[in-house]
C-alpha cells in the first residue's frame, strides 16, 4: 500500500468516524466505506463485495436514544484494510480474505463501542466550554468546540486505520495462507450466518401482516436464476406503485367502503 493510498484510507476513516455520529452523508455505512477503501487501494470489486456483506449485518444496527449500536465505522474500515493487506501480493485466496474480514467485523464493532464511549466522555468538558462561550456571546467559540468534538469522533477511527496500514502486507497474507481449510471454511460459514442474523433483525423490526407477502414474493423471485438485480428492482417498483395506488384509492372511497385505508391489510384481516 503506497503512501498516497494510506493517506486516502486515513481520510476515508476520518470521514467514516464523524459520520458514525452525524448520519448525514453515510460514509460510515459498510457499503460506502469498504467501497471507497477498495477504490483507493486498487481493489474496488473486493471492496464492494465486502461492503455489501457487512451492510447486511449493519442493516439492523441503529442508535436509539442513549443506546448506541455496534460501531459500523470501525468494523467497515478495519475489515476493509485487513482484506486489502491480505490481497497485497495476489497470492492469498480472495474468498478467504473476504470471509475472514467479515468474521472479524463483529468484534471490531464492539471495540469501536469502547472508543466512541471514550470520545463521548472526553467531549463532556467540551460541552461546558461551549456553555461558557455561549454565556459570553462567543458564537465562534461554540462552533469551534462543536467542530473539535466531531473531529474527535473521526480521529478515533483514523488512528486505528493508520496503525493497521503500518502492518506489513506480507504478514497478513502469510496468516491467510497458513489458515487450514477447516478454519477458512468456518470463517465463511460464520460470516454468512452473521449476515443472515443482521437481515433477520431488520425483518423482526419491519414484519407486519401487510409486508409479509412482499417478503415471501421477493424470496421466491430471487430464486429465479434468469432474473437480474435490475429485473428484481423493476418488479419491486411495480409492486410499490400498485400498493400505493390501491391505498390512495381506498382513502378516496373508491373501495367497498369502511376500510382502514390499507387495502392489503383489509384483505388479510378478512381472510
| Low-confidence runs | none
Number of helices: 11
Q: What is the CA-atom radius of gyration, in angstroms?
A: 23 Å
H/E topology pattern: HHHHHHHHHHH
Largest sheet: none
Give the class from helix and strand content and strand pairing.
mainly alpha
Shape: flat
Number of strands: 0
> What is the CA-CA span between the terminal residues?
61 Å
Concise structural overview:
77% of the residues lie in helices and 0% in strands. It is mostly helical and 271 residues long.
Characterise the protein shown here:
This protein is mostly helical and 271 residues long. It has eleven helices and no strands. The radius of gyration is 23 Å and the shape is flat.
What is the element layout, followed by pairings?
Blueprint: H1 3-22, H2 30-40, H3 44-58, H4 72-86, H5 94-135, H6 139-165, H7 169-178, H8 181-206, H9 212-222, H10 229-251, H11 263-270
Could you list some keywords that capture this structure?
single chain; mainly alpha; 11 helices
